[in-house]
UniProtKB/TrEMBL annotation, chain A:
Gene: nuoF
Organism, scientific name: Candidatus Mcinerneyibacterium aminivorans
Protein keywords: 4Fe-4S, Iron, Iron-sulfur, Metal-binding
Phylogenetic lineage: Bacteria, Candidatus Macinerneyibacteriota, Candidatus Mcinerneyibacteria, Candidatus Mcinerneyibacteriales, Candidatus Mcinerneyibacteriaceae
Entry-linked CDD domains: TRX_Fd_family (cd02980)
Protein name: NADH-quinone oxidoreductase subunit NuoF
NADH-ubiquinone oxidoreductase 51kDa subunit iron-sulphur binding domain ranges (all copies): 438-483
Keyword ATP-binding: no
Membership in a protein family: Belongs to the complex I 51 kDa subunit family.
InterPro entries the UniProt entry points to: NADH-UbQ_OxRdtase_51kDa_CS (IPR001949), Nuo51_FMN-bd (IPR011538), Nuo51_FMN-bd_sf (IPR037225), Nuop51_4Fe4S-bd (IPR019575), Nuop51_4Fe4S-bd_sf (IPR037207), Soluble_ligand-bd (IPR019554), Thioredoxin-like_sf (IPR036249)
Domain of life of the organism encoding this protein: Bacteria
Length: 537, 122
């Protein structure tokens, strides 16, 4: 009886099959027979080995040696040299790190469970349409405590101390924002929740409103108490039907239970919330345009200063906060700022909700501590990249590209800022080698061009010109000076546009040219699209 | 609600209610009903669970909904929660799989390993 001494494992997946894995395998069996090794060495088929785009992949066990790009012609050498004489074929040996991207969903699920959830602690756990389930998990305790036991100044101070920063994109310290409005005597004041989540690829606010609307309401009520507002508005994007339904129901239930309305918890504090449904303009996510739209006017941004904190809705002092920001508030009040400061990095405290999409195995959302690296987010939580990582667009259309070199940069406001990138809304669009950077840029600029409100010239005209240049490049009509022209134009738009919309093109263009200048030049000089995505005619 | 005391009383009651319910109901079926879940067919899955459970007169099984867990690529997601047992999370559910899960898991206590995406210890 023979004893099996070695196994030759064939990684079988779409890629290796195309590269001819089965033919190599047949050849292998034939050669083993010729060498008289067929009893001793077994050929086994297995799933993907996690080495992608490397032709036929085999693993010799127990030697733990991977061979890649194996062809029929190499088989004899492997059998004679390695299996017969014990000398691995260096020429074919794979010594790169084995990409763990092809992990099964169950492995990522283990990681997903380890998330540190603050904002989404109840999403996926309680019934969002049942107020009592929210109360059962300590819901509204923070509000009750705040209005009955604390002074508004204490709340502002607590949020300041916690280090919470705005989650809408700009990252302005929330406590500081509140402290501009809180001491003003002018009445009435307003609290506005910005739920007009228009950044492409972002859907974190939707998940909060769908999964745990009471947390937002509680956060709003606490914020309103802190700044002295009696009326709150939630400006929700019109497409978010389910968010609107659930938030509306949550507001009604809260009124029924005496949590919204007059004399909340017997404290003398009155507060109520109204929902306003947006009509689909990207620019209305900009706070001053949002206020104009809320007043019934056209959604154009206002000139700042004066800032909404002094002159906001109907010219009254107004605080505008993002959904995720407000959803952080109840936990901070309940657990104290020290607890919150334990999470995150030096200047960015707490957690961040990310939405991951594109060429990853498990798209979805995660909430992790500030400072988690992009590599961890992609490879641990999202199950890795389909194919090879090329770059990620972080922060949506108004974000920036992040290349391979930056996979290990800590994701928070300041670390990314150092590399001319932004955290933005938390959208992470991952691209593999099949994506064309010029095409991506063109799509982004088409979006800006379409969404520009037209109020200020740099944005209205600038985005059209940027788009036209990119369109030319994709049609093999690009000129060498375009790269410089785009950068100069985008930079002047960044400096002179009225709001973030016109200022955004610069980051995305600058980061694209920084990482992928060669690829853009291929389009311009050689008139070819290396990824075969652009028309080029 | 007039004061903090009242909120706390209500919370105790609510927590008891949830417990009581889980004493009556030995098994809780929780369907993820966020936008991605619904888009992937969670409503049909929820209805199928309700129908199957009614047809089989399973009084000790309760069906409820929740928001998204974050596993968008595996929607519709269904959790089977039982006391003193790890929660079983099923992914990519559809009405046919529901029938199987009701028969094998809920009625006969045998987890349908094939559809499991995650097991969550208490």
């Amino acid at each position: 009886m023979s004893v099996v001494t070695k196994y030759v494992l064939f990684g079988i997946d779409d890629n290796t099959l195309q590269a001819g894995a089965r033919r190599v395998e047949e050849e292998f069996k034939r050669e083993l027979k010729n060498a008289g090794l067929d009893d001793e060495i077994k050929v086994v088929e297995t799933g993907s080995m996690g080495i992608i785009q490397k032709g036929v992949v085999i693993l010799v066990e127990p030697d733990d040696i991977y061979y890649t790009e194996v062809t029929i012609d190499d088989v004899k050498e492997i059998v004679n040299e390695h299996l017969l004489k014990g000398r691995p074929v260096q020429r074919l040996k794979f010594d790169g790190k084995v990409d763990k991207s092809v992990v099964s969903f169950r492995e990522s699920a283990q990681e997903i469970k380890k998330q540190n959830r603050v904002v989404l602690s109840n999403s996926g756990v309680i019934d969002p349409e049942n107020i009592e389930e929210y109360i059962a998990v300590n819901g509204y305790e923070a509000l009750a405590k705040a209005v009955t036991e604390k002074k508004p100044e204490d709340i502002v101070e607590e949020i300041k101390e916690s280090g919470l920063r705005g989650r809408g994109g700009a990252g302005f310290p929330t406590g500081l924002k509140w402290s501009f409005t809180a001491p003003l005597d002018k009445k009435p004041k307003y609290l506005v929740c910005n739920a007009d989540e228009g950044e492409p690829g972002t859907f974190k606010d939707r998940l909060i409103m769908e999964g745990d609307p009471h947390k937002l309401i509680e956060g709003m009520a606490i914020a309103a108490y802190a700044i002295g507002a009696e009326k709150g508005y939630i400006y929700i994007r019109g497409e978010y039907k389910l968010s609107i339904e659930r938030t509306e129901k949550a507001i009604e239930d809260a009124r029924k239970y005496g949590i919204l309305g007059e004399n909340i918890f017997g404290s003398g504090f009155d507060f109520d919330i109204e929902i306003k449904i947006g009509a689909g303009a990207y620019v209305c996510g900009e706070e001053t345009a949002l206020l104009n739209s809320l007043e019934g006017g056209r959604g154009n941004p206002r000139v700042k200063p004066p800032f909404p904190g002094q002159v906001g809705l109907w010219d009254q002092p107004t605080v505008v906060n993002n959904v995720e920001t407000l959803a952080n508030v109840p936990s901070i009040i309940l657990n104290g700022h020290d607890w919150y400061r334990e999470m995150g990095t030096e200047d960015s405290k707490g957690t961040k909700v990310y939405t991951i999409l594109g060429h990853v195995n498990n798209p979805g959302l995660i909430e992790v501590e500030m400072g988690t690296t992009l590599r961890d987010i992609i490879y641990k939580y999202a199950g890795g990249v389909k194919g090879n990582f090329k770059c990620a667009l972080v922060g949506g259309a108004a974000g920036a590209f992040i290349g391979k070199e930056m996979l290990d940069v800590k994701m928070d406001y300041d670390h990314l800022g150092k590399y001319k990138a932004v955290l933005g809304s938390g959208a992470i669009l991952v691209m593999n080698q099949t994506a064309c950077i010029v095409d991506m840029l063109k799509n982004t600029l088409a979006f800006f061009k379409h969404e520009s409100c037209g109020k200020c010239t740099p944005c209205r005209i600038g985005n059209v010109h940027l788009y036209n240049m990119l369109d030319d490049i994709t049609k093999a009509k690009g000129k060498e000076e375009y790269i410089n022209n785009m950068l100069t134009l985008a930079e002047s738009m960044q400096q002179s546009s009225l709001c973030a919309l016109g200022q955004s093109a610069y980051l995305v263009i600058e980061s694209a040219t920084r990482y992928f200048e060669d690829e853009i030049l291929e389009h311009i000089e050689r008139k070819v699209c290396p990824q075969n995505v652009c028309e080029m005619k | 609600m007039k004061n903090l005391e009242e909120l706390r009383k209500l919370r105790e009651k609510a927590q008891k209610n949830i417990k009581l319910r889980s004493q009556d109901a030995k098994i809780k079926v929780v369907v993820g009903m966020g936008t991605s879940g619904i888009a992937a067919g969670a409503r049909e899955v929820l209805n199928k669970f309700i129908n199957e459970i009614n047809e089989r007169d399973l009084d000790d099984v309760m069906v409820t909904q929740t928001g998204e867990k974050g596993m968008s690529s595996q929607e519709p997601i269904v959790e089977i929660r039982e006391e003193n047992k790890p929660t079983i999370v099923y992914g990519e559910m559809n009405p046919d799989k529901v029938e199987e899960v009701v028969e094998k898991h809920i009625v006969n206590g045998k987890v349908v390993e094939e559809y499991v995406v995650s097991v969550e210890e208490e």
